[in-house]
Amino acid sequence: MARVLINVPATAKRGSVIQIKTLISHIMEPGFRPGADGNIIPRDIITLMTCKYNGEEIFRADMYPAMAANPFVTFHTIATESGKIEFAWTGDNGFSETASANITIE
Amino acid sequence: MSAVRRHFSRNLAILIALGFALPATSVQAAEIPLDQRQSGYETMGRETRAMQDDDTANPGSLWILDGEALWTKKTGAANKACGECHKDAATSMRGVAARYPAFDSKQNKALDLEARINNCRAEYQKAQPLPFENKDLLALTAHVARQSRGLPIAPPSEKMTPIVEQGRAIFEKRQGQLNLSCAQCHDDNWGHKLAGAPIPQGHPNGYPLYRLEWQTLGSLQRRLRNCLVGMRAEGYAFGAPEFIALEAFLMYRARGMKMESPAVRP
Amino acid sequence: MSTMANTNATRRELLIGAGVTGAVMLLAVRPAGATPETMRAAIRSVVGEAAVKTGKVKLDIPPLVENGNTVAMTVTVESPMTAKDHVKTINIFNERNPQPNVARFHLGPRAGKADVSARIRLSDSQNVIAIAEMSDGTFWQHEISVIVTLAACLEGNL
Q: What is the pLDDT of residues B50-93, one digit of tens each?
């Protein structure tokens, strides 16, 4: 299971713009580096991260080998209503990871 | 030629030039005056510092998460978790990393943090020692070291003096194909550039740390091995007494400086 | 690209100034992979034949990068982010990594602010471009030049 660190404010004022930070452990092997045996180590990266706010997609990131290891991505969203913010990562070799955080709107 | 090997050859050439340029006579290098010491943090760029400062952005936090989970996980033939004896790490482990390596009277030798953790695993959990740079060992070391963040590095106990001196001798002796000593770069030429990167003073106050070059968390011994390879000197084996002595000397050299673990470094 | 030539010349001067003797040959070997041409092609596959205007986008990368493995990058785009007028995607390209794409971020009116950050890899000193696709079909860009230095003592195979 990949380790994930999500930073979503626990509470926010209705209509305010909040910043969401995501950090996930992943080697993000670009597929261009030679290994100790001289052969190219095959690509192994996260290719997609999506974020849904009470079921509606609010952000999506397509990732390529030029994304650094242990991808760190931040973005913003409007705090519309209380509920659940869900994250999903998918990638090479069937990689799949999810996480979620609750937010309360005041 | 791969990009890494190309840059390595170029840096090697620069190091060779440096080896000839530095005076051949000085072996007793000048110690950095205590008030002029600075953490590698000070020589880093703004963005790398920001990466370290924000726990939610520091990649080392991922290992802390693992370490917290491992702390409470029962393991070994004794089926015990670290937390059963040590309770809350924030209390029991506070200040520990700041005074390691430490002398173990029972074994009559010095242990660094990794050796101590493996010692506990073997003796109390009846578990297999974790290999060096294993992600669980890094996670546990990071979790323990985190509890000393912000605390000053403690001066070593009297029992550690001969080991510290052994470390000092290694630090100051010329070695390897380039005939360089650690002191020549890190005592005499800190702050100057080597192939575009500033030479840090080389303090151990952030370990284990996330090194951008490694793209992962790593131990002080891993970093020391990097240096030795870079100097074209023989790298001691992981866990060797020479490394413990070097670590002890480096901690002595950095006494009073604040711990930053888990740090981020280029 | 005159900016590229100037960057390489300055680096060579810096290294020679650092004490490297004339016997050392510095080869500006370009790694096989992306070139300014392949980057343009990758950009064309996103914008088609549309004109890309400079402005509105701000790509923020430290001009001198300590280690190309992890480079902090922030992109902001001036936009009210309303349903009628917002940023649809932000596309990041490079010209010297083995391949030209870096990331594509999909936003929309729910974003509130077009402000995204990520950590990227840069294999060498090069130009990086951020291109924003707006809801009205226009494209805006910001291109910057980044110098990438490496850590001094490389690990080798340990």
A: 999 999 999 999 999 999 999 999 999 999 999 999 999 999 99
Right CATH for C36-150 from 3.40.1170.60, 2.170.150.40, 2.60.40.2470, 3.40.50.300: 2.60.40.2470
Q: Is C32 on the interface with B (CB under 8 A)?
A: no
Task: Sheet containing B216-218: give its strands across.
Answer: B216-218, B209-211, B264-265
> With contact defined as beta carbons under 8 Å apart, do B129 and B118 qualify?
yes
**CA-CA distance, C2 to B131, in Å (whole number)?**
51
Distance CA C111, CA C157 (A): 44
ipTM score for this prediction: 0.95
Q: Flag whether residue C67 sits within 8 Å of chain B, measured between CB atoms.
A: yes
Give pLDDT, residue B136: 97
The model's pTM is: 0.84
Structure tokens at B211: 């090194």
**Residue of C94, C98, C105 lying closest to A75 (CB–CB):** C105
Domains of chain A: 4-27+42-105 (2.60.40.10)
Mean pLDDT, chain B, rounded, equals: 90
Q: Supply the residues of B annotated as catalytic.
A: 227
Q: What is the mean pLDDT of each run of 10 residues along chain C (158 residues)?
A: 44 45 39 74 93 96 89 96 97 92 97 96 92 96 89 46
Token pair, residue C151, equals 């850590």
Interface residues from chain C to A (CB-CB < 8 Å): 33, 69-71, 92, 94, 97-99, 101-108, 110-122, 157
User: H or E segment at B47?
Assistant: helix B46-53
